């Protein structure tokens, strides 16, 4: 039991022993419950962020805390928007509070390395605020450091070049598209319906946003660019690179500079 | 894929179809990350509330939303208290906000039946406030009704008599004791360390609480009464009764009285 | 004037002298403005919590701070619910804030012993959060300790046996019933209308709650179990025991364990 | 019982009958727990606001809700400041929340006239915000109107001329001075210690405020101008005028202009 | 560039040098966007508070931070009320938060003297709360002191006597009247429309407030007393006195008393 | 006076007339007080966002509301970070609240078109939340629509190609670099110190963030990439294109699709 990476499967006694002996990094995945087209499940962002967190934890002797499964409100340009049935989001204050509390609690455990693994683009700035408020609560002497990352930022141009032989179109429209679909085919193939891939996209957005959102800007499927070309091999390639490079970042990133 | 009870495994298209066709109840499990002695994992409350939610959902054609895995702060008399390493809790405002947001979002989906399945005693009143604020936001014409329950309240005296042949000592000290341990042996036997059962308890508390908490009131193991006598058969008996009776409650409880 | 237990009747000079000389406990009663059937006044919870606080303070040389007269929202199973005219409640955040502020302020006075005397079941968890946040604000070096109690928990089985010769039915439905009515007959007989005692109850509730609340679950009178058999003698018996045992708790409960 | 003005002494049945039959104004006194020199009690502001509210209610067939006994933080120029032992205040958010909740709840009762009777200068703007937010919550169709007043604004120049034969020095330094002391001698003579009247004041303040407050600006007694000359006759004169004129205001002030 | 008083025109390098070398006071003007009759612009309160802040800063070697241009909600008796088109206000929590953040940030810069220059009557108490919370966040050892002032309190009776040869009617109705109009004629003559001066006022208000506000209490022009007699000479006289006396206050007010 | 674009220079009467007659768009600039290297002033983001807002308003008959001058906390990768003296930021809740209030107030005026012109990258997601909460407060029937934009998104690849003859390096490190410096040379040449241009950058950041921030990642000057090559001609080119294209967006973007 004690070699699991999943923190919620450890007894407190085992967890405490790990913390005191190894100062392990704890990875906190943050996802969303958000439409991902007809071919991917609502929980895609949480499933992927926890999967890469687990792979990374296995490489660095880390633990994975329970995923925050509800993310910030979906926006048309990055997630399709809040008008889709099934998308279930939280207000900024809720997500900020959840992260703030987590920072405070993990510091109380004596942890020194917390890694927040974001899998939903819209979450980023509320994670930042939650971390900032949590560290402010702890005061200047706290031993806990926090790393925050979006997992896709660990994909290299080389690998993206392999995945997109015709050229990587950029992360902007990568919602329920090749990257996520391939990684889901790698991690959770039974949850992907390749027979239902829509042909929508790429969506074309103006350089501004409108509120209430213009639902007519978004394809009815919720997919912003095509997932054609996705396969599990690409998914493994991406997943391996992300986990390997995240592990390297964790290995070196917590060392404070000499003062 | 579409016969799963897990909402996060459904695409939005499948979810929407289910909602529009069946008006299924959605069950939202709420747990905690909290010490449960040396023999049970930190995630026990979330694991059990989601397991009984899934069993119940299967009986009523319902769905299970992603678990809220972090609960309100552990109190000495019911969960041992916040001084244990590994217990990772949230402030009242965070939990209230999470539930408030969920109520608002599920109503937007067109859902009429939301069931909040609580597995952590300390959560109860903050769930109540979250539901109340969410329904207030929706206004008087909302079609969504919310059922809130603590799953152990569905255990009957008869069954408890069977589980405790020497007499049921009451729910007060049932933290990491026979009920939870037996149900974990039923649902997640690999996560239970029966070889590490402590002999602590029953704890004896005065009729008041002190803050900062008196950690000396609580056994060092975190167990408030003994888990001796736990077994998977008892666990299944309890789990079956809970799921069966929760299903009955859901089948009848959402019917509004004639006005 | 200076021998009063009521803090609001003391000048600040007298209060300061008491605090510096005696380190008296200050008792903060918390009530509600909530329906209590046709025979008891809306202010019952505040009247009773302040009365037992005053009796207790007299025994221990303590002071009683002004009552928090508005409590958390009434729930059908313990107070009848919010649909009764006259019930006047506060949101969780308000009650939490009030207690948090009080903790901070009494600590600033140099007080070491604050006793929060709750007379309204629904308040309990919001008092806990208020205390926790207040103490967090004060930081780890604070000298103030807080005791929180529900006054009815100081009634012993023996006394309850005397009050209920046919067996104590439990606290669950004790709203506007024999305990509260008897204590009101002891403390405030002119405010009790024994001629208007309803015959409702005992109410029978399912093992779950519905929101919006099912008002048809609650007797129209607001009384959850009968107050027949109430009398002032029982009230005095209960009041004396509560005050005596609360005084004992205060006398011993603030001593910190040797470390 | 039913002819009392104190809402907390009425049963909900009697209260509801009054509301439905008479549409009575409900007066909500707001005070403070704040130093008032060595001669007046800490609760002066709550005692006076509830006393004038009760006198007024008796004249207009109104009711008095339980006093909000804790007010906003004392400021040097109007109440001496927060550094006095015994002064026990709340944050702005707490007072705002309390009033917001009250507005919402009294509207739910079917009430049309709520009168907030302020007895602590520092409260004023937070009462305004609480009322505004409460009415915003109710929406544009609400039937409840709210009157807010500081009771001393109902004293006429003629009466102030009688009370101060050498000329009324203005309300600015009237903290624990002639007006409050005289009214306390009228309403609560046993709580006034005329033998302890300090000779401090009038205090002299610059046209700005400093934070942290300059405690050396405030006389050590906490009294900003002398209470010499206070007597119960003056107190009754003031109290009668205030109650009479408040009653007139309530009688006419709730009539909406023809549109 | 470096001799400007406007902080937003300095580079961070120049600002830091000023702070470290001179410990300059930083003045933070707070205004409103609020109707000021047909003859004055909506931004009058911000324009005047920043103008007097700049004049004062020039005298004391201080800096002026960017104005908070949105103030607390306009009230009928002091600003006409929220029903005027163009009045654009913030909730209490927003203004409190803005000031709290500013206090914390200026303290981080190493600043010791912050002067909050209020130009909108309704702001006062929310500025007080913001300062209090900011200083509480900083803790007892902070070096930053805050001065808060309403600029009109620096006008002397002598000068007011000159400006109002028939007697100063008091500040109560001075909204868009002689003082503000004269000062605007001094500072921003092109923004004043003397040809549009209304003849309204003085308004006559009862000694209480009603909510929702009685818009019929307020002249349709929004002017509470006449601005007849305003001229730039009077404006300069007032502006000079205010700046001179504010400068004196800043020069002496930050010296802490010997302990 | 009435042909000004600055809302705060209009009387309420003129503003109301404009709103009722023309339904003008109101542009709300949002900036920051943040280090911009030794050569640009702290207020750069507010100065630029208000300048492009004014240019745009002049083209579309719009108005410019007072700038929100304090932005969200500076991050190392986009603004250098909070450790620079002079950077003066607000918490998320403050910025969210300010925008929420603005949305509500402009809707009350009868406005239908609000354009939030962001000039500080870190603000974006808190503006989104503020808009969302404000529109939620207004309810589904509101006539106000909100456009939100970052002004640099209106620069076309062609123009960026002209400005960067060696290739546009991307917006990521464009803090106090060629784009901002050129635009400041166009709009506010006296506030730019070209003699102090640092040679720092381009900064090189890892694909994650650390908290507390790693100040050693950021050049000591605060400049993330060189501003060499900036000139006023480029600034005008950029400014003209931004204003022209923003004007086009406003002209067409508020038309709702036929339903």
UniProtKB/TrEMBL annotation, chains A, B, C, D, E, F:
Keyword vocabulary terms for this entry: Hydrolase, Metal-binding, Zinc
InterPro entries: Creatininase, Creatininase-like_sf, Creatininase/forma_Hydrolase
Lineage top rank: taxon: Bacteria
Pfam families: Creatininase
Cofactor: Zn(2+)
GO MF annotation terms: creatininase activity
Main EC class the enzyme belongs to: hydrolase
Gene3D superfamilies: Creatininase
Entry EC no(s): 3.5.2.10
Annotated family: Belongs to the creatininase superfamily.
Protein name (Swiss-Prot/TrEMBL): Creatinine amidohydrolase
Species name: Hydrogenophaga laconesensis
